[in-house]
Design a protein that fits this description.
12 helices; binds S-adenosylmethionine; 8 strands; alpha/beta
Length: about 350
């Protein structure tokens, strides 16, 4: 995520709202630790931490409403090593009213991919992961002429779908080992409708038009452009549910609840109300920059070398703002989310 994630993650926050009822039911159902022993929770894919305050606050409340105020609670926030954990901790410990200020709450972090083992066996009571598992562990092949997996066809589409399948299976297999019997896993998965559309295809097409223009102006090399990919795959509900029917996770995990939610476009709704197209263009651009631009631009310069990426980022932002302002309807975006509540048997 880009450095602006804390300020431009209202859309992801809105998605997490759909997970809160599942989280509350998970907290009512979860097998509790023995008296005096800690309740251990994990938040996988924390980013800046902004959207973790509410769910982790609910974890502390929910556990203590069942056990009493003296139960220790540990929360481990994880992300990939490149995440800015300084910002994460500044949010979590610096926000007034944060769950982290409650007595007997212990906050930790782990910098490792959730497609790998993260905890010893049977360590955890509850896992929360919001809008993170659509990020793939690797991109098997770039999408020719585009940056977005939903626009891939043929062999490349098959390879991306297969990567998504094996990543999701790895995620579930590790969590099945790490959760205690009676533990709960709540996942809000970035999703697609049954026809494979993620609801963001217009926004991604607009980004491609801007990037193509930057290639034409010589700001991005054609080699870098050929590799540029948003490394995500938004699964259909069927793809999310497949590992529970057969495979290594099926015997250990049971899906209690699932749904497919289409999110409102809160930025477009504001634009409709105010008619302020410049503000809309600014906010759409800021969201895209925070969520996707860093992974796109990572192909345009060697690691550790800014290689002009700041200038490219600026030119991209100017281009996207102009494009959105010229045709706001084209980028109306309705992300889909599959909320899942899963029990470790
Ligand atoms: C869209 S943000 C969501 C952040 C937050 N959970 C929220 O709801 O706003 C996705 C986060 O998942 C992280 N992520 C992506 N792939 C990951 C992986 N393999 N392991 C751990 N975190 C990952 C990204 O680095 C990013 O911080």
């Amino acid at each position: 995520m880009g450095s602006g994630y804390a300020r431009h993650s209202r859309i992801q926050h809105r998605a997490a709202d759909y997970g809160m009822p599942l989280l509350r039911r998970a907290l009512a159902a979860v097998a509790l630790p023995e008296r005096g022993a800690p309740f251990r929770a994990a938040d996988l894919g924390v980013a800046a931490g902004t959207n973790s305050l509410e769910p982790m606050g609910a974890v502390v409340e929910g556990v203590r409403s069942r056990t009493g105020e003296d139960t220790p609670v540990t929360v481990v926030h994880t992300d990939i090593p490149g995440n800015d954990f300084n910002t994460t901790f500044a949010t979590i410990t610096g926000s007034p009213g944060s769950y982290a200020h409650r007595p007997q709450v212990f906050v930790h972090a782990e910098a490792r991919s959730f497609y790998e083992p993260l905890f010893p066996p049977a360590e955890l009571h509850l896992v929360w992961s919001s809008i993170a598992v659509h990020w793939l562990s690797r991109v098997p092949a770039p999408v020719p002429g585009h940056i977005y997996s939903a626009r891939a066809t043929g062999e490349v589409r098959r390879a991306l779908r297969e990567q998504s399948r094996s990543d999701w299976e790895a995620f579930l297999t590790h969590r099945a080992r790490e959760l205690r019997p009676g533990g709960q896993l709540v996942v809000l998965g970035g999703a697609s409708a049954d026809d494979g559309s993620s609801g963001a295809d217009g926004l991604m097409d607009a980004a491609v038009a801007v990037l193509t223009d930057l290639v034409g102006r010589g700001l991005i090399t054609s080699e870098a452009w050929a590799r540029m990919t948003v490394p995500t795959w938004n699964r259909t509900r069927e793809e999310f549910l497949a590992p529970f029917a057969a495979g290594p996770a099926a015997a250990a995990l049971r899906v209690e609840e699932h749904d497919l939610v289409t999110l409102p476009d809160i930025l477009f709704d504001d634009f409709r109300a105010t008619g302020d197209v410049r503000d809309f263009a600014e906010r759409v651009t800021a969201f895209f920059q925070a969520a996707f631009l860093p992974s796109l631009l990572s192909t345009s310069a060697p690691a550790g070398d800014d290689g002009g990426t700041d200038a490219v980022a600026e030119a991209f932002a100017d281009g996207l703002r102009a494009r959105v302002a010229a045709d706001p309807e084209a980028v109306e975006t309705h992300w889909r989310v599959v909320p899942l509540r899963i029990t470790r048997l």
